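fyi for ur records
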Amino acid sequence: MTLKTIKISEENYRWLVQLSGELQKLLGKPVSLDKTLYLLHHGNLKDLAGSWKISDKEAETFLKTLSKEWKQWKISA
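which gave:
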């Protein structure tokens, strides 16, 4: 496996760490930031449907924001 370094904003880092912590609680085992990004990218978060207590409006906002952020994310060499 090749390791790469990416730069993200402090805000996105905090969000990713928070999400990783939530996944760790739900799954009952450590979840790396790498695994969290993998789950986000491959859509496996749907497996956790019903696990988060959020309204339909919050879910819609989350998905729109996630889609927007993925469109802006670029791999740098």
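Helices lie at 10-27, 33-42, 56-72. thats all i got for now
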